[in-house]
Amino acid sequence: MFDAARMGCGEFYFPAFAVLLGASPFQVGVIATVPILVGSAFQLIATVAAHRIGDRLWVIASAALQTAIFLPIMWLTRSGDGYSWLLTWVCLYWMLTLGISPAWNAWMARMIPPDIRSRYFGRRNVAVHSLIFLSLLLGGFLIDATERSRLGAAKGFAAAFGIAAASRCVSVWFLTRQHDPGAREEVRTRTSMRGVLDDFGRRPYGQLIVLIVLMNGAVNISAAYFTPYMLHALDLSYARYTILNGAIVVARVLSSSYWGEIARNYGNRRALQVSSVLVIPLASLWVVSNNYAFLICIQLFGGFAWAGVELSTFLNLLDCSDDDNRAQVLSIYNLLNGVMIVAGSMLGGAVMHALGDRGYHIIFIISSVCRALIVLTIARGVGIKRRGNEHSFRNVFTWVMTLRPGEGEEVDAVVLDEPRARRRG
User: According to DSSP H, which parts of 149-285 are helical?
Assistant: First the structure.
């Protein structure tokens, strides 16, 4: 759980730190997306390494190295320049971050039984997003306070990155205290990467991955450019910028358990379909008004929608894979996801380069249009149908929007021998 502060005080502020170093909107887009592609490609190696040395050991070692990455980034706050060095260190950071992902997901899938996953991860996300929110506020107000003082904003960034590194250290300690229920079992032969690719068009994970990566590509046409839009075009202070980012995290905190109930009652695929529809208009709503209260409302609704996408995506990926191929499926997903994130960002960057500040509203609209086309053409058959009497999309959408997660639910008595799941650090 302490790892949440690494995100709230650390990676969330990489684009804002790039702006402080004098990066252009296009350069901010590069630092927000290209390192993710580099990290996604590294996963192909990480998956093999984790299989050889064990998922648990790989996660712990990578997390420890991740802590060290913040030290040279903190050093850059002393120079006031060094965009190229920042890009280098952020690439290494995302190599470790995404290199952990398949091993951690496979580890958690062994620890958390399928019957309780939606409820467990829904509640876990509440705790994670709560800590992200608190650390995001702490980092943002530290930066804003130092900017207003003689110290300067760079000192605030250094303090925020220091907190991120310290929290990751605590997280590593907690990770060392977790067990792996599959560690002593005889290692089974895992499906090869070629085997997973050969079945890509026939297995449920294929369509699911296509939907998710195309959606993320569409989202990142605009996503990487919200930071320069807020700090430059809207000329927001770091405090107001932090509050806007915090609003989306608050909404995630408040709605994660709700989406867990939606997934449990109506199925993971319906939760993904409904939440995917809800994210369609989010980018284009920024064109309607620059009123600060209105922007906070957009962020709150966005947090609600993205909480559903985040949880249901994770649960559907677990549903569509098994322990023999899960690491490979997740590696392919993250690689394609990284490619599409960069592709979307480059498209948005090309528009920004051609139109300057006038391009912001254009890319916001393009992003929403692309989201709509993707969801309406691909989302219908995505995921695994686990219920013979599955509720219709229209009914589930209505119950979600009217905040009635239990309506229409058919509940049978269930007795589970639930092992006590250890939490991620």
Answer: 153-175, 193-198, 204-223, 226-228, 238-266, 268-278
Residues 379-415: tens digit of each pLDDT: 877 766 555 566 777 888 887 877 654 444 443 333 3
Q: What's the pLDDT at 136?
A: 85
CA 278 to chain centre: 17
Supply 369's token pair. Answer: 């249009």
Confidence of residue 1 (pLDDT cuts 50, 70, 90): low
Contact of 68 with 52, CB cutoff 8 Å:
no
CA 7, 382, 276: angle at the middle one, nearest 5?
A: 45
Q: Of all helices (H) and strands (E), which one includes residue 39?
A: helix 25-53
Please answer whether residues 10 and 159 qualify as being in contact, where contact means their C-beta atoms are separated by less than 8 angstroms.
Answer: no
- Domains recognised in the chain with CATH numbers: 3-179+199-401 (1.20.1250.20)
Q: Which amino acid is at 3?
A: D
Question: Within 13 Å of residue 361, how many CA atoms lie on the same side as its CB?
Answer: 7
- pLDDT interval class at 371 (50, 70, 90): very high
Q: How far apart are CA 259 and CA 269, in angstroms?
A: 12
pLDDT in tens, 310-336: 888 888 888 887 777 777 888 888 888
Contact present, 378 and 297 (Cβ < 8 Å): no
Q: Which amino acid is at 158?
A: A
> For 267-325, where are the alpha helices, taking DSSP H only?
268-278, 292-319
Express the helix, strand and coil content of the chain in percent, nearest 5 each: 75, 0, 25
Torsions phi, psi for 384 (to 5 deg): -110, 125
Q: Which are the contacts of 186, defined by CB distance < 8 A and separation ≥ 6?
A: none
Question: How many helices (DSSP H) and strands (DSSP E) are in the chain?
Answer: 16, 0
CA 292 to chain centre: 25
State the Cα–Cα distance between residues 339 and 134, nearest whole angstrom.
Answer: 31
